[in-house]
Amino acid sequence: MIENYSTISSASILKLLSSTVSVDHKTCTIHLLVSDAQTTPTIPNTDPIYGEDGSCSFNEIETDGPTIKHWRYLCAYYVAIYLKLDLAVRWQLRWPKQCVLYTTWSMKPENTVQERRDTYLKDGPFVFRSPDEFVPHLLWLITYHASDDNLTCGCKYCSKRDQTTINDEYSLGDPNASPSMPAPGPQVSHIVRNANQVKRLEKNRKERRHSPLGRN
User: Is the pLDDT of residue 1 over 50?
Assistant: First the structure.
């Protein structure tokens, strides 16, 4: 771990993690460049399904509106902390097309009153039910996807832990509800560890390129 982490610039971190995340300062957008999925998933039941009692349910893919903006803001907030971005900026996270946010609607028989509304983010084999569930996995994707470090992801589905424990560990919560919330600690050291890992990988690649035995 790099002891003087506090002196590392945001630009340096972004350079080290350039294969997994990028930042557009003009549009206040953080782009996630990696995913657990190889292709864009097909979300079933996008057409209404009616029950015998007249109830109705369907899945709606979220492409715009308050729901997806809420997810993008909350996820971006935590990524911004780890990338040392300006937290006064309202960042938005853009995930790759392999990730799909969708809402499952369940309607009462009269088909006019909302009975239940649940939103999910599907990424490969995982279906995350809230930004809090996704954030630990998101940070793992950013910090370890491009390295050969075998550190286990801290999300509930990879680590098999309950979400309450994970929320406490990562200091998860709505930033709007807690403006003075301190930056969570564990993943900061993860970024530093990954920085060392990426440097080693780059050094090894350069040595192989300059070695007669390493040339193809």
Answer: no
Which amino acid, one-letter code, is at 132?
D
Write the pLDDT tens digit of every residue in 24-33. 999 999 999 9
Query: pTM for this one?
Result: 0.75
**Rounded CA gap, 119 and 166, in Å?**
20
Distance CA(101)–CA(67), nearest Å, equals: 9
d(CA 76, CA 95): 10
Residue 78 exposed, middle or buried by CB count within 10 Å (0-12, 13-18, 19+): buried
Query: CA 172, CA 183: separation in Å to the nearest integer?
Result: 10
pLDDT tens for residues 107-152? 776 655 557 778 999 998 899 999 999 999 998 888 876 555 556 7
Is residue 100 within a helix (H) or strand (E), and if so which, with residue range? Answer: strand 99-107
DSSP 12-76: HHHHHTTTTEEEETTTTEEEE---S-SSPPPPS--S-EE-TTS-EEEEEE--SSHHHHHHHHHHH
By C-alpha distance, which of 61, 197, 85, 77 is closest to 138? 77
Question: Is residue 88 pLDDT above 80, yes or no?
Answer: yes
Q: Tell me the percentage of the chain whose pLDDT exceeds 70.
A: 71
pLDDT value, residue 2: 31
Beta carbons of 188 and 5 less than 8 angstroms apart: yes
